[in-house]
Amino acid sequence: MRAMVLDRPGAPLELREMPRPEPAAGQLRIRVEACGVCRTDLHILDGELSEPKLPLVPGHEIVGRVDACGPGVAGLAEGQRVGVPWLGHACGQCAYCRMGRENLCDAPLFTGYTMDGGYAEYCLAHTDFVFPLADEMDPVASAPLLCAGLIGYRSLSRAGDNLRTIGLYGFGAAAHILCQIAIWQGRRVLAFTRDGDTAAQDFARRLGAAWAGGSSEDAPEELDAAIIFAPVGELVPKALKSVCKGGRVVCGGIHMSDIPGFPYADLWMEREIVSVANLTRHDGAAFFPLAHAAGVETRTTPYALDQANTALKDLRQGRVQGAAVLVP
């Protein structure tokens, strides 16, 4: 098979011929139809997530068909379409797993980080950690749902109850999915983009955002919650000053630059700052029906597998509206 491989942080990915992996007990081999390109991949390539498996095939927004089943696999058949998310495996034994918080597992595996992912023609996945997908789902359009969608959903669930107005900071893959869901739920969405990114602001308005502007601008109205997808710590105090009493700022990324100091008065009145870590299988069970009911349509830009470095560069430089997707 062909795969794009990372040998060391800071180096570009290299296209290589590799043996097709053989599934062990409880594993599937999946023929990759599409794999989304996520900002987390940039954090891995840049060494900001410091413990990758090396050499590594990145990619954790995978849609494909089951190609082979290892011993003990039940409930899935060859040819079936499945999705593979960031959480590749959890131990099931630690205190967090026993509490139903497998996203905080003490001994997890992460797709495209501590196990090879979907920047390839084939990949392996643990049977219990894939999501069956309908045959009629378009693989390219569906790929961003496996991380951008799931993390957006988990971020919204952490934002609190009875939300009327939500600010989304960083209008990329996750925000453009979450915007559609929030509006379908009857909420007002305010979109904060990179300063001067009028294309992203116009995109947000077309999706139904009530307002769109630069992230350095003050919110035009009080927010019940703010969700930050941009990996920019300076946005946290900015968002905190915009939320109402009892409001919450949710940091939805896996990595963020340092958060600068801010006056305690901005936090007072029971405002909160919380983070989102990974996802659970329960999130997928709740999210996919919700995305279908809301009629979510992803905006994607497809790239060939050997164009992975170009896709990553375009993502880094803000040239992608919605999500970039590799199509082997």
Describe the protein in words.
Helix 8 links the parallel strand 14 and strand 15 (272-275). The chain folds into two domains: 2-145 and 298-327, Quinone Oxidoreductase, Chain A, domain 1; 149-275, NAD(P)-binding Rossmann-like Domain (Rossmann fold). Helix 4 crosses helix 5 (173-184) and helix 4 crosses helix 9. The chain has helices spanning 39-45, 95-98, 139-142, 148-158, 173-184, 198-206, 235-240, 264-267, 281-293, 308-316, and strands at residues 2-5, 14-17, 27-37, 61-69, 81-84, 87-89, 109-110, 122-126, 131-132, 165-169, 188-193, 211-214, 223-228, 243-251, 272-275, 300-304, 323-327. The protein contains ten helices and 17 strands. The chain has 328 residues and is of the alpha/beta class. Strands 3, 4, 5, 8, 9, 16 and 17 form a seven-stranded mixed sheet that branches. Strands 12-11-10-13-14-15 form a six-stranded parallel sheet. Strands 1-2 form a two-stranded antiparallel sheet. 24% of the residues lie in helices and 27% in strands. The relative contact order is 0.17. The chain is globular and about 55 Å long.
